[in-house]
Hints:
Elements: E1 2-6, H1 17-25, E2 30-34, H2 38-43, H3 47-59, E3 63-68, H4 79-99, E4 104-106, H5 137-161, E5 165-167, H6 178-188, E6 193-197, H7 199-202, H8 209-216, E7 220-225, H9 245-254, E8 260-263, H10 288-308
Parallel strand pairs: 1-2, 1-8, 2-3, 3-4, 4-5, 5-6, 6-7, 7-8
Amino acid sequence: MRIGASIWPFRWDVPYEKAISRIADLGFKAVELIAWNEEILNGYYTPKRTGELKKIIRDKGLVLSQFVSTPSGMAHPDKKVRDQAVEYFKMALDVCVDLEAELFNGLPDTPFSAPGPQLPARPHVQKFQVHTPNNDPDAWKRNWDNYVETMRHCMALCEAADLRYALEPHPYSYVFNVGSMLRLIEHVDSQALGVNFDPSHLFPMGEVPHVAIYQLGDRIFHAHFSDNDGVTNAHWRPGKGKIDWTAVIQALKDIEFDGVISMELENVPGVSISKTEGPSYASTDATAEFAAENIKAIKYIQSICKQLGVEFD
C-alpha cells in the first residue's frame, strides 16, 4: 500500500503545481488531481500542462493515483443530456490517459439527476426534507435502467482505454452504500467498475466501514481516509471521530488491498476553500495548520500499520 493525498484540500482550485510539491514535501507518495467542470478540464488540462504536471509528479517521487472528474446528468431523464454526460466522461477519460493516472474516479448520480439533500445539515434541521422528483414507480425503474445503460457506455470506454473506474459511493445518490454498489456492479457487468472506498461517506449511511471492506473485496480499487461522527459526512483527521481504524486497516490487509490510501481531510483547520462556486484561479491555499493535520494523520495510520504488520511503499 501507499499513502497519498487529494489535491483539493491543499488547494481547491487550479493551478495545482505548487500544491503537488507541497504534498510530496510532507512525505506523501501519491497524489490525486481533479477537474471540477468542463472549463477546467479543457482550459487547464491542456497537452502542454499535462506534460508539465507529469514531470512535477515524477520528479517529486509521486504517482498519480487517480484523476477525478464527474459528469453531470448521467441519470437524467432526457437521453440527450445523458449522451452529453458520456461525451464529458470520454473527454475526462482522455485527460486521465494523458496524465498516466492509475485510475479514473467520479461520483454516482442522483435519481433523475435531481439535487440531493445536504447531509451536513441533518443534525440542525427539525425536518429533514427530501424532494421526490417523480412519483411514478415506472418512471423510477426506467430511470435506474437509464443510469445503468449510461454506466455501461462509460465502462466500455474505460475498458477500451485499459483503465479502471473507482466509483465513490456518496450519500443520497444511486450508489450510497455497499448494497447499492454491488447492485450497480452486477447490472453493469464490467471488470472496469470498482469502488473508491470512502468511510466518511459510507459510515453515516449506516455501514460499518471495515465490514464494508470485506463485502466489497477486490472491487476496492482505491481508498479515501478521513474520520467522522457517523451522522454527517464530515471529513476529519483519522482518529478524531468514531471509525475503528485498526479494524479498517486489518480488513484492507485481509483482502490483500495493494492500492493507494489517500488522505482527504476537508473539515479540519486550515483547509483550502474555493473563493467561488464556479471555476476560480485564485482559491486560498491550505495553511501550515492544515499541513500539520496531515502529518498527524500519516503518523496515526502508520502506527496502526506497524502494529498490524502492514508495509507501505
